[in-house]
Every structure is written in structure tokens, then in C-alpha cells.
Amino acid sequence: MAPIPKPPAEPQDSPDTYVGLAADRAERLARDRGWSTVRSLPPGAIITMEYRSGRLNFEVKDGQVARAWKG
């Protein structure tokens, strides 16, 4: 039987630190800090709720991050 793959560790980074930043700056910073996937979404976007380790989500309103969360 094949071993169960171990997901990569997430960066030790709080999503709250990105709120209020310009979206492009926040995305660059998140990638520099080790997030493998950064997803920018408009307010009210319909998304699936599966959790993906290493992904950081941004809700972007008027070019700024209004909300950020893992997964």
C-alpha cells in the first residue's frame, strides 16, 4: 500500500495582516511568505468550500483586500 501523502506546512502567517493592503501588493507579499496559491475574489463571489492547504484567499473590493482567509 502506498503511503498517505503529507500536505506541505502552511506559512506561519496571519491572514489578517493582508487586510487593507492593495491587492497586487498583498498577493506578492503572500507569495514571498510562502503561500503556494493566492486567490483574489470579488465580494460575494460563489466559491467551493473545500480546504486547500497552502492557499490564501482574498476578497478584494475597490483594489484593496477587504477580507483574507486560509484554505
From TrEMBL:
It comes from the Bacteria. It holds the Pfam family Inhibitor_I78. Gene3D superfamilies: Trypsin Inhibitor V, subunit A. It comes from Streptomyces caeruleatus. This is Proteinase inhibitor I78. InterPro entries: Prot_inh_I78.
